[in-house]
Amino acid sequence: MKPTFRFLIFLSLLAAIISPQAVHPEETFNEVFLLERNDKILAFSGLRNSWFEKDLRPGETVVKSGHGGNVAVAYTTERALAFSAVTGRWTEEGLRIRESVLSITAEGNVATVITNIRALGFSSQSGVWVESKFNIGK
Predict the structure, then answer these.
(1) Cβ contact 16:23 at 8 Å
(2) How far apart are CA 97 and CA 101, in angstroms?
(3) Which of these, 43, 101, 114, 136, could form a disulfide with 83 (CB 3.0-4.6 Å)?
(4) What is the pLDDT of residues 92-130, one digit of tens each?
(5) In this structure, what is the dihedral angle of CA atoms 119, 134, 116, 138, given to the nearest 10 degrees?
(6) What does the pLDDT average to over 83-100?
């Protein structure tokens, strides 16, 4: 092996080690903050530098909520709510009879609500819920 070839291999390896941007995925910064009040839930969007309110219905309460990246998510006694910092809008999905929420997550550009009968996914880019039903008993 020629010394020049060894040197090129060494430089390639060194470049891979000191260049973490080429190896790691793009990082999403927290652009949303969530605040709960008795009669409403508010999300602050760092991208739009503004507060966005969602009124709760009479008797409705927030059971659990979370936020991270460009999304905020909450589930109440009646529905799942998601906020997109990108679109600046709240979107809701009603909970069904005998449906119980098992978990919620908000991270990066995605929020999820997992229930006993379906999985809901929310994208901050589109601002839309997508549903996948579980095959119960299979």
Answers:
(1) yes
(2) 12
(3) 43
(4) 999 999 999 999 999 999 999 999 999 999 999 999 999
(5) -160
(6) 95
Q: 83-117 in b/e burial notation, b at 16+ Cβ within 10 A?
A: bbbbbeebbebebeeeeebeebebbbbbbbbbbee
Q: How confident is the model at residue 22 (pLDDT cuts 50, 70, 90)?
A: very low
